[in-house]
Amino acid sequence: MYNIIDAHCDTAYELYKILGDLNANQLSFSIDKIKKYHSYIQFFAVWSDPVYIGEQSLHMAKKIIEYLKYQLTLYQVPIILNRCDLEKYRDTKGLKCFLTVEGGEPVGEDICNLDLLYEMGVRLMTLTWNGINAIGCGSMSGWEKGLTDFGKQVVRRMNQLGMTVDVSHLNEAGFYDVMEITQKPVMASHSNSKFLHPHKRNLSDEQFLELVENNGVTGINIYPLFLGKEENLSVMVRHIEHFLSLGGEDHIGIGTDFDGIDRTIPEIQDASQMENLINRLLQLNYSETVIKKISFENVYRVIYENLNNE
Question: What phi-psi label fits residue 220: left (phi over 0), alpha (psi between -120 and 50 degrees) or beta?
């Protein structure tokens, strides 16, 4: 059985809303759904609804993190905080996780809040969600401005802290600003190919090639809205194959967006069915080496290069 890293899900927010159980629930991700796999690393995104602003957003992020940590402790799921943790838990059985933030609203306009999130265990942040914040403009905002001066400060500080910069949701100008500033590889945790489906949330070929040059990675998303008119596993594979055609063998991962989307593809409706992607790639005669890179190794490399040793 192949090891799996999923670079993005919104289960933490949905679990908090219902005060649900991480082990068994009706959401797309739960511990019982991934027991068939050997090593499974899940990036849990903390999303603060844009209705919350300023300190309210930070307060909401704290509440979600507190509830998620309670559930993780209940089921003895380790949170990976540094390179030593990542190496320790790389091949161990069961679920391990990263805490992430989707959208920099909890940071507000105070860089100290970024440090606070880091102290709480956050090791990746998606700079914007769909709209505008103090860091920059989201891809759905309609604005073409790049990162603000504060946003550039945030990227530099994330590099220093060992927190991975996530460019999913960011508009193109902001994306290129990040690429100019960052000293570390970046991640587009849940973004597909704009060449195959011209959605604003997807990456153009030019952006993907920048990501390759940066030694970063993009996580293929299973949301039909980002895949195209055909809502199935075959079109998801086409996005992988297109990025491979651009020299992306070392730069493709998985970022499902479980529990952050209103529908999935029929073949992968929840985490228990992640093996369907692996099996399809095997059927298409993908090498074991390439499959391992897509399912685990590429995201592992990027997060390892960003983390601090302790």
Answer: beta
3-state SS assignment for residue 170: strand
Following CA atoms 273, 164, 302, 228 in sequence, which dihedral angle do they give, to the nearest 10 degrees? 40
Rg, C-alpha atoms of the chain: 18
**pLDDT, tens digit (0-9, with 9 covering 90-100), for 195-225:** 999 999 999 999 999 999 999 999 999 999 9
Cα–Cα dist 235/227, whole Å: 7
Report residue 177 as tokens: 């600003």
pTM reported for the whole predicted model? 0.97
- CA gap 245, 305 in Å, rounded: 25
* Alpha-helix residue ranges (DSSP H) falling in the chain: 11-18, 55-74, 83-89, 111-119, 149-161, 172-181, 205-213, 224-227, 233-245, 275-283, 288-292, 298-306
Q: φ and ψ at 201, to 5 degrees? A: -80, -10
The Cα–Cα gap between 132 and 137 comes to: 4
Rounded-to-10 torsion of CA 51, 55, 60, 63: -170
d(CA 111, CA 116): 9
**Is 101 in contact with 158 (CB distance < 8 Å)?**
no
